[in-house]
Design goal:
The termini are far apart. The chain is built from eight helices and six strands. The model is unreliable at 1-22 and 43-52 (pLDDT under 50). With 253 residues, it is an alpha/beta fold. Helices cover 46% and strands 17% of the residues.
Length: 253
């Protein structure tokens, strides 16, 4: 279907062991009981996603509602920088998650090539609708257990959901030691309050960039990719030359 991420057709585009059905709506997450939370925390920790030699995996989530089209196009142009930054440190797989329109939230498979990601993003157009950040956080939690996610990056400009509901989901990611980097475009006060809280609960960071500021967003995405590929040590090294990395480090626990 046009405008939706589809499963890459060649084996080289996505890690064979991590292929996932693409273009399917994300299911609503069921409330987690305490024993279920304990189970997935234990499983995720046992997987040791940060072990030496492990591929870095990052969920790259974007608000694709109508107001986001300029930034979506900008992110398409900048996403290769994330892979280039990660290549210097090891390797990086990215799972694209986006929402738009009326209750539409979709995820790609794991992508290890910048050209494949750019092609996929180029097929998606922005459509009007409300935010669905809760679904993004739920998807990130599922992948943290199933595939060992090291970080989540979210780029958006609004939050129209109940903050307490989002905090519960963010707290679960915090238990899994998966930081969420909330990159906010613009100056919406409600969004800033919510984004800061999500970042705090996950041990991540909140950063603002100006509308249309490609250089600012590039620095932030490079820093997030460095963390996903090489951990805090890589982010520390990058902070010596990049302002984006310094901003993230200044907030991370």
């Amino acid at each position: 279907m046009s405008g939706e991420p589809t499963k890459p057709r060649s084996a080289g585009d996505v890690s064979t062991s991590q292929k996932a059905a693409s273009g399917k709506p994300l299911p609503e997450a069921r409330p987690s009981a305490s024993d279920e939370i304990a189970a997935f925390v234990a499983k995720a920790r046992a997987m040791s996603p940060h072990a030496a030699g492990a591929r870095g995996r990052m969920v790259f989530a974007l608000d694709a509602t109508m107001s986001r089209q300029p930034t979506w196009d900008m992110a398409c142009a900048l996403q290769a920088d994330m892979f280039r930054e990660a290549a210097a440190l090891g390797s990086l797989d990215i799972r694209l998650v986006y929402y738009r329109g009326l209750n539409e939230c979709r995820a790609s498979g794991w992508i290890s090539d910048s050209t494949q990601l750019a092609t996929l993003m180029g097929k998606i157009d922005c459509r009007g609708g409300n935010t669905q950040i809760g679904k993004v956080l739920s998807e990130a939690r599922r992948e943290a257990v199933a595939a060992g996610v090291r970080a989540v990056v979210f780029v958006g400009d609004a939050m129209e959901e109940a903050i307490d509901d989002l905090c519960v989901k963010a707290g679960e990611l915090g238990l899994l030691k998966v930081p969420v980097f909330m990159f906010q475009e613009g100056h919406d006060d409600v969004a800033e309050h919510g984004f800061r809280e999500i970042a705090r609960l996950t041990g991540g960071a909140w950063c603002r960039f100006d509308p249309g500021a490609a250089a600012q967003l590039r620095e932030l995405l490079r820093a997030a990719a460095a963390y996903a590929a090489g951990g805090r040590e890589a982010l520390l090294r990058l902070s010596k030359t990049g302002s984006g990395a310094a901003k993230l480090l200044g907030q991370m626990k």
